[in-house]
UniProtKB/TrEMBL annotation:
PANTHER family from the UniProt entry: CYCLIC DI-GMP PHOSPHODIESTERASE CDGJ, PTHR33525
Gene3D superfamilies (alphabetical): EAL domain, Hypothetical protein af1432
Name used for this protein in its record: EAL domain-containing protein
Xref: PROSITE patterns: EAL (PS50883), HDOD (PS51833)
Domain (EAL): residue spans on this chain: 1-202
Organism: Acetobacterium fimetarium
Pfam families per record: EAL, HDOD
Sequence ranges assigned to domain HDOD in this UniProt record: 197-382
InterPro entries noted in UniProt: dGMP_Pdiesterase_EAL/HD-GYP, EAL_dom, EAL_sf, HDOD, RNase_Y/CdgJ
């Protein structure tokens, strides 16, 4: 099976929950005979098998329920403070359903209406809803202003889905939307840059350039790191986590302990964290998930010798959004293999299938996931397992460098 998560933000672009999206392993975009009831059951089972905290951390899980599955007691496997019950847009409304929603709310669960396209006053489920989700592609902001005002007057939380640009985010926020879902935060905002990060980037470029030499010098690496007290402190924290109770006597001894490959991995992670200080933490987390996931995908695609490059490609795939520059500008001056540059700048080359597959999985573009998986004979369960490993690793890294 495939389970992906999509972040849901508040007005401060802080993650408050994740919508969990599911398809069985042999499906594309459509259900192909698999009911939404089975889909929801699989998501809940997958949550417990993979670990609830690993998938949604300490946030809410937004999960779709149809008119049949809402009547089972499966939803009560998840505590009310962790679950948002999303009612699908095509649910048949009758007394049995409304009675069940009353019961669900009485137990403390919050209810969201997914892909809401109805008239706010006329739709019978609005009175039971805590959250109303508007798909901005299906219901543009200019067409729903009156209903949005009505929902706000009735103390509803309104959520904008498919928010793909910062302009859409700002407009929805101005209208009174409190929650937002979409990949607007993963795109660079070229106009109106608030500050220049070139100094920080230059420091890291010096380290990366040294690492790319035929014979990198631990002496030179330690000298560069020691020139930035903040970087030195954060680097020592990382090493301390790895060494446990063993003392770290110097930057040079720490670098020697880690080895060149591990130094490069962590320097790139710290660079992204430093350059992305003004960006949502979720952007950093996505880069880490992509890094781990891309490394495993390269191996499954038969690119074992390029696993390291694939990992770095995934890690740097958000650098344009971090720096509010084009990807070509963001990568300028960083010594990278041609395979990474081709994938991230020109969208071509040997690593392109890795890039396309991890993006498709992340955005729940199951038809593309299915096509690439079949082309390279990748099992659905393998993808799910590797994605869960990537989530766990990303959570662990963020905890260490926060």
């Amino acid at each position: 099976m495939f389970i992906a998560r999509q972040p849901i933000f508040n007005t401060e672009i802080e993650v408050i929950g994740y919508e969990l999206l599911y398809r069985s392993g042999n499906q594309s975009q459509e259900y192909d005979g698999v009911s939404s009831e089975e889909s929801t059951a699989s998501v809940i089972i997958g949550l417990f098998e993979a670990g609830l905290d690993n998938i949604i951390e300490d946030k809410y899980a937004f999960i779709n329920f149809d008119g049949n599955f809402i009547h089972t007691d499966a939803l009560e496997l998840i505590e009310p403070d962790r679950l948002i019950v999303e009612m699908l847009e095509d649910v048949e409304v009758d007394d049995l359903l409304t009675d069940r929603l009353k019961e669900v709310k009485h137990k403390g669960y919050r209810i969201a209406l997914d892909d809401f396209r109805e008239s706010y006053n006329d739709y019978p489920l609005t009175e039971y809803a805590d959250i109303i989700k508007y798909d901005l592609l299906a219901t543009p902001l200019t067409t729903i202003a009156i209903d949005v005002d009505k929902a706000l007057l009735n103390k509803k939380t309104i959520l904008a889905e498919k928010v793909e640009t910062e302009e859409d985010f700002l407009m929805a926020k101005e209208m009174g939307f409190q929650l937002f879902q979409g990949y607007f935060f993963c795109k660079p905002h070229i106009a109106g840059k608030s500050f220049d990060k070139s100094a920080s980037k230059g420091q890291y470029i010096r380290i990366i350039a040294e690492l790319k030499k035929d014979e990198p010098s631990f002496e030179m690496l330690s000298e560069i790191v020691e020139q930035d007290v903040t970087l030195a402190y954060r680097f020592l924290r990382v090493v301390s986590f790895r060494k446990g109770s063993d003392l770290v006597y110097s930057i040079k001894s720490a670098l020697t302990y880690m080895g060149l490959n591990e130094i490069e991995r962590w320097i790139n992670i710290l660079m992204l964290q430093d350059l992305g200080k003004s960006k949502p933490k979720e952007l950093m987390k996505i880069s880490l998930i992509r890094s781990s996931f891309s490394e495993s995908l390269a191996e499954h695609l038969g690119l074992n010798g390029l696993a390291h490059e694939a990992s770095l490609m995934g890690l740097l795939s958000v650098l344009d959004a971090m720096l509010d520059q084009s990807m070509e500008e963001a990568l300028d001056g960083i010594a990278l293999p041609d395979s990474i540059l081709a994938a991230l700048i020109d969208h071509e080359g040997i690593l392109l299938p890795v890039y396309e597959l991890q993006i498709a999985y992340e955005t729940a573009d199951w038809s593309t996931v299915d096509a690439i998986s079949k082309q390279f004979s990748i099992d659905a369960d393998q993808l799910f397992e590797e994605y869960m490993i990537a989530l766990e690793w990303a959570n662990d890294v963020v905890g260490k460098i926060a």
